[in-house]
Hints:
The chain is mostly helical. It has one domain (2-80). Helices cover 73% and strands 5% of the residues. It has four helices and two strands. It has helices at residues 2-21, 24-27, 41-63, 68-80, and strands at residues 35-36, 39-40. It has a two-stranded antiparallel sheet. Helix 1 runs antiparallel to helix 3 (41-63).
Amino acid sequence: MAGRKRSEGFAFFLPVVGAMLVMPPIVMLFDVDVSVFGFPLIVAYMFFVWLFLVVASCVLTRGLPRAETEVKKADTHAETKP
């Protein structure tokens, strides 16, 4: 139960962190004349923030246990198929 509450806390915290990372004051810190793999630093920053959020949410959703109702629905649905 403690693991589920901890995962739910991270699930709430992740969009908050994502929103903070794309706020203009933070993004403007990366608006300098530097290139990363031929792309401006600000574009690379936004891409890596997006990539981090996608990977973190994927890892987080795999770690969250399924709700009991979803498990029961899946079990009864599997039993009805021949």
